[in-house]
């Protein structure tokens, strides 16, 4: 069972996303968590970076792609796919 779902929407923010994910990994501890990253049409290598990072984590990480631009669409894509509690920003 997952306690917390972290929903992260991103578009062409590879460097700040990398820092965010590193912070999550440090803080995760024994929390049963999942991280859902929605790539909202990025043209940088954000998706590849997330895939690489996900392979190194002990918790669930899912990368979703929402090609239609817009934060509301990216949030909607992530919300119906989460398994645990949490909120999106």
Fold topology:
Elements: E1 4-10, H1 14-27, E2 33-39, H2 46-55, E3 60-65, H3 71-79
Parallel strand pairs: 1-2, 2-3
Helix pairs in contact: 1-2
Structure, described:
With 89 residues, the chain is α/β, with parallel strands linked by helices. The chain has helices at residues 14-27, 46-55, 71-79, and strands at 4-10, 33-39, 60-65. A three-stranded parallel β-sheet has the order 1-2-3, with helices on both faces. Strand 2, helix 2 and strand 3 (60-65) form a beta-alpha-beta unit.
A few lines on this structure:
The chain has 3 helices and 3 strands, in the order E-H-E-H-E-H.
Low-confidence stretches: none
User: What oligomeric state is this?
Assistant: single chain
Note the run of SSEs as H and E.
Answer: EHEHEH
- Overall geometry comes to globular
Radius of gyration from the CA trace?
12 Å
Overall pLDDT level = 87
Give the number of DSSP strands.
3
Distance N to C terminus? 23 Å
**Overall SS class:** alpha/beta
User: How would a textbook summarize the main sheet?
Assistant: 3 strands, parallel
Strand percent estimate: 15-25%
Number of helices: 3
Widest sheet, order of strands: 1-2-3
Considering DSSP H and I runs of 4 or more, what fraction of the residues is helical?
25-40%
